[in-house]
Amino acid sequence: MSWLAKPLSALLIIFLPTAALAADARDPVEAVNGLDVADGLECRLFSSEPQISNITNIDIDHLGRVWAAEVKNYRHRHNSRPEGDRILVLEDTNQDGVADKQTVFYQGRDIDSLHGICVLGNRVIVSAGDKVVSFYDDTNDLQSDRKEVMFSGIAGTQHDHGIHAFLFGPDGKLYFNFGNSGKSLKDKDGKTIVDAAGNPATDDRKPYQEGMVFRCDLDGSNLETIGWNFRNNWEVTVDSLGTLWQSDNDDDGNKGVRINFVMEYGNYGYKDELTGAGWQAERENIESEIPRRHWHLNDPGVVPNLILTGQGSPTGICVYEGNLLPKVFHNQLIHCDAGPNVCRAYVATKDAAGYTAEIVNVLFGKRDDWFRPSDVCVAPDGSLFVADWYDPGVGGHNQQDVDRGRIFRLAPVGSQYQVPVYDFNNPVGQLEALASPALSVRYLAFQAIQKSGEAAVPALKKFAAENAARNPRLQARALWALGKLPNQGASAVQEALQSDNPDIRIVGIRLARELRLDVASLASLAKDAAPEVRRELALSLRHSRSVDAPAIWAELATQHDGKDRWYLEALGIGADKQWDAYLAAYLAKVNGQWDTVAGRDIVWRSRAKQTPALLAQIITADTTTAAEQPRYLRAIDFLSGPEKEAALQAILK
Q1: Strand 167-168 relative to strand 146-151: parallel, antiparallel, unpaired?
Q2: Do residues 91 and 98 touch, judged by C-beta distance below 8 A?
Q3: Where residue 396 falls among pLDDT bands split at 50, 70, 90?
Q4: If DSSP codes are grouped into helix, strand and coil, which group holds residue 484?
Q5: Closest to 604 measured CA to CA, from 639, 559, 578
Q6: pLDDT (tens digit per residue) in 358-387
Q7: What is the spatial distance between Cα 650 and Cα 644, in angstroms, rounded to a whole number?
Q8: Would you say residue 582 lies in a domain?
């Protein structure tokens, strides 16, 4: 995350204050006055120095307490606090929106430079150094009683391109990531983990490289690698539909900071897929604009970006699924970018099988360019908390101020910080908690539902039906919880697939994928009217052993329109390791009439043994212009074998 990692020679000047404020303007009393706040919201200072400093990450528990990762021991200041960095718990006991009680949950050198904190009941998952460790408060006194190593062997210690925060997903699983200094993921005993696809969780291009995104069970088992080839993907988030979103930072100064819709099992293009070469290396069909070139966006096999945001230092991210904030923010991404001193919403709308987005500022340091938002989190009442690293510069690991830091609360004017209380021991309370905007509350609800077992089924089904029209996000949460109960998976999938809402049909496909159901049970969706539904079905074909898979893929491929890169890449992901059978099924289905705009697209993306000869036909065709040829020549770079050599000879002749 280059808010701490930018070379001084390149960017420190850019992110230093252009006009120093008077000394008294840095006083916490003036903190809010330096910020512009979105219409309809009020910003209040929840906590600041001397109570806290240098907050890298926050989470909010089901009681509304803010858990903060406080970092002083970073890089050239790594011994500035000999006792070690701290995990703080901040409470507002009188509901005035200001923290009036602070507890040190844990302090030690083993969590120096911690970059992630996730609170799940009495368990606190901490990402620090080369490990992920679960701390447990068994006595409910806000003190760590024991700790267990979950993952180890992660590179990037004292480097912010290493391990980052965990979060709880609607499917009952954990999601997390590391940047391109993380290198590998090992178990508690130091053994390299082999993921669900049978691949080592390492960056050695077999097949993964650079930064990665992961999903696993609560105990760390059943690890999946669900995205790779990022530079410094600081934090990943997931919404109630199971859609993943993430920011990523460019090589500093290239105006290529990006937000990604993380389409599962995709390559995101920071380095060349096969050679590992950087974006500046010469290549055929190279992109003309540096921000696009930076992510290899002209290469087949690279998932496109949601939005490029220019120059920056992206940090924390979440999805706002509450209703306290103005409607423009409902169900949208909220993201911090420490470089340009801003917390933004990316208001996303569907675009064919993908998305487009527009930027709406939430909190902007217009008059205080020390404002360095490091994280954002949704509280149980639906308010928003923003952590502020607060520093004069961003770059070169140049932590200049170790004594200051702030946390702000955003809510409508006059809104008190009142945290709902839930009874997790009965179905009504469980479902009320499942509807919470806070992940910490939904975790406890999900666990209580799973513990209730079959007794929870009637209430869950009723809750899902009642919210089908008024709040599909709540319907989705109920279906996820239902689908993970014993003997309820298949029926939950079918209920979702029968919905007239494509988002819920997507939930059904994703649930089926996690339950490892035969893809043949989803075959009817191959002709779904919604391209985003067909996109998800294509992803589910990846490594499928079903005899029906090639025919389903072919049906999906015939519906590609030649314009939708998201859909095309989903087809490519789905055909991984089975290109020969899948492409042959497609060519048979179109009776050999593949030479259309859409068909050329599919050939360009394909990696079958037939592909080189088909590319040669395209390159040498009279209908192919000189301007189009480099695109298809570049596709040949991703192929190998005697078929490639024969195709190249045919082109030369």
Answers
A1: unpaired
A2: no
A3: low
A4: coil
A5: 639
A6: 999 999 999 999 999 999 999 999 999 999
A7: 10
A8: no
